[in-house]
Specification:
- The protein is an alpha/beta fold and 258 residues long.
- The protein folds into two domains: 193 residues, 2-enoyl-CoA Hydratase, Chain A, domain 1 (Alpha-Beta Complex), CATH 3.90.226; 48 residues, Orthogonal Bundle (Lyase 2-enoyl-coa Hydratase, Chain  A, domain 2), CATH 1.10.12.
- It contains eleven helices and nine strands.
- β1 and β2 form a beta hairpin.
- α1 packs parallel to α3 and α5 packs across α6.
- The longest helix is centred in the last third of the chain and has 15 residues.
- The two termini are 32 Å apart.
- The mean pLDDT is 93.
């Protein structure tokens, strides 16, 4: 079934996933299910080498939970023992996407919106963007672990307990995002990074993504040992030999994806 709130554009080995639920891309269970299904399927096409996750709504990247819908949704019968699994499944579908995902944050990324930015591999933000976890002020909790991933434990706690949002410039200074650009240059900047990644070998990119996800929380020695295993795996591909030959011969590699 086609997604109601997500559009996919595929060009030049780049899949752009656009969130389109005006006015602010608020999150509901239907939206979570569509994110989950979209990201589980979008990169199964070997031709896709990188994904851009952006917003088709000018006012926001994602303003978090739809509190109006949260108050009116009828709970299923029988009641689930893990009611919010659908939200985690959506986030992990982005995190575990087999190719790199670049967040193009054009406006506020709050609560669940911050979560979805945080599980991307690279975050590029417009100067109009902001980031925060306002849950504590609206009777909810969550996103602290995602914010910690971006800024570390102590800055996370200050922002989490206060519910304060910070500008893209301030988040960049905290090391939480990759870069900040002028609003009218956001698409160009994100596309530039995506194009650079898309020029790499498909198996190299996919193995690199899997390796980084597996080693992120590992002890240092175990992580490097795992990376060596992935290097050995990559060496079995034709693209690896082509990359080394192109380096020696001082030419652009011609990757076959094999």
């Amino acid at each position: 079934m086609a997604a109601e709130f997500f559009k996919i554009d595929r060009r030049d080995h780049i899949a752009t996933v656009s969130f389109d639920r005006p006015p602010v891309n608020a999150l509901t269970d239907q939206v979570f299910a569509e994110i989950r299904d979209t990201f589980r399927s979008v990169a199964q096409d070997w031709d896709t080498r990188v994904v851009i996750f952006g917003s088709a709504v000018d006012r926001a990247f994602c303003a978090g939970a739809d509190l109006k819908a949260r108050g009116t949704e009828v709970p299923p019968t029988p009641l689930p023992t893990d009611a919010r699994k659908i939200a985690r499944d959506a986030m992990w579908a982005v995190l575990d996407c087999p190719v790199p995902v670049i967040a193009a944050v054009n406006g506020p990324a709050l609560g669940g919106g911050l979560c979805f930015a945080a599980v991307c591999d690279i975050i590029v933000a417009s100067e109009r963007a902001s980031f925060g976890c306002p849950e504590i002020g609206v009777g909810l909790l969550g996103a602290g672990s995602h914010l910690k991933r971006m800024v570390g434990p102590y800055r996370m706690r200050e922002l989490y307990f206060t519910g304060r949002a910070v500008s893209a410039a301030e988040m960049y200074e905290m090391g939480g995002i990759s870069r900040v650009v002028s609003h009218d240059k956001l698409d160009e900047a994100v596309r530039e990074i995506a194009t650079e990644i898309a020029a790499k070998s498909p198996p190299a990119v996919r193995l690199a993504k899997e390796s980084l996800n597996r080693t992120e929380e590992m002890p240092f020695k175990d992580a490097y040992r795992t990376e060596q295993d992935y290097t050995a795996r990559l060496g079995q591909y034709e693209d690896s030999r082509e990359a080394m030959a192109a380096f020696r011969e001082k030419r652009r590699p011609d990757f076959s994806g094999r």
